[in-house]
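ugh ok fine here u go
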Amino acid sequence: MPERKSKTNERDSAFFLKLILYVLAASFWLKFTNPLQIGAISISAIPVGFFIGLLFAMHEHFQIDRKLEYAILLIIAIVTFFNPAGIVI
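structure:
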């Protein structure tokens, strides 16, 4: 059987740059010194960069990499929630 060529012609350096940008975007949090109270729910931080990264990943040209980009965004957002990353207001 002949091998099929992948339809994606993205360079490795471009893919690596996009992953770095997704890591930087996912680490951007908007944290509050006094948690917001919405009814019984207390919100201490909002993952602004995660949502921006999701928007960029949804409109990605290469659909094969989309699942990997979602996973990177989610993992980095969870890890940086517990670290002092983001803007405190």
